[in-house]
Known about the structure:
The chain is mainly beta and 141 residues long. It contains one helix and twelve strands, in the order αββββββββββββ. It folds into two domains: 5-56, no CATH class; 66-140, CATH 2.40.50.100. Helices cover 9% and strands 43% of the residues. The longest helix has 13 residues, at 5-17.
Amino acid sequence: xxxxxxxxxxxxxxxxxxxxxxxxxxxxxxxxxxxxxxxxxxxxxxxxxxxxxxxxxxxxxxxxxxxxxxxxxxxxxxxxxxxxxxxxxxxxxxxxxxxxxxxxxxxxxxxxxxxxxxxxxxxxxxxxxxxxxxxxxxxxx
Length: 141
């Protein structure tokens, strides 16, 4: 069985574009499932009725620094109100305990504090984006 890397790459691109954790594609007797691990490593499974193979690709765009993760599942908001000043922006200095984002869950606005002092190297989510428990919100250096 030959692995179609083009399909796997397209599915990986869909994960990034639509901020998904997992996507699955089936055609005839071939089934491909691509999912993200918490370490941002992409794992692809290509399965047919007779064989099963797993492909691990190297980590993509590995960023050094400390990750501040979401404490809950919900919707991330970068500012206290639409059009307001953002809590976290690349290059901004923050202190431990500063609010970096709001995560809304069940109509409750939860302020997410920074776990570290430092400078924001990357904001990993966009405004209004759904987030999972443990998903990286920002990278602090």
